[in-house]
Amino acid sequence: MSTPTSTLELSSISLPHLIGLLQPITVPSPNAKFANWSRTFTCNPLAIFEPSTELQCELILELARREGKVVRAVGVGHSPSDLACTTGYMLRTTKLDRLLEVHADKRYIIAQAGITLDALHAELANHGLAMINVGSISDQTLGGIVTTATHGTGINYGVISTHVMGLSLLLADGSRVFCSRQERPDLFTASICGLGSTGLILTITLEVEPAFRLKEVQQTIQFHECVRSLDSLVTASEHVRFWWFPAADTMRVSSADRTVEPTKPAGSWLWHSLIGFHVVQFLLFVARFILPLNIFIGRFASWLVSTKVIAIDDSFRIFNMECRYPQHTTEWAIPYENTKACLHDLHDWLMREFSDPNGLRPHFPIEVRFSDSDDIWLSPSNGQKTCWIGIVQFKPYGFEVPYKKLFERFEAILCRHGGRPHWAKAHHLRPEALRRLYPRFDDFTRVLGSVDPRGMFRNEYVERHIFGKTGPGYHNRVFKHHAPSR
Question: Looking at residue 37, what is its pLDDT?
Answer without folding.
Answer: 87
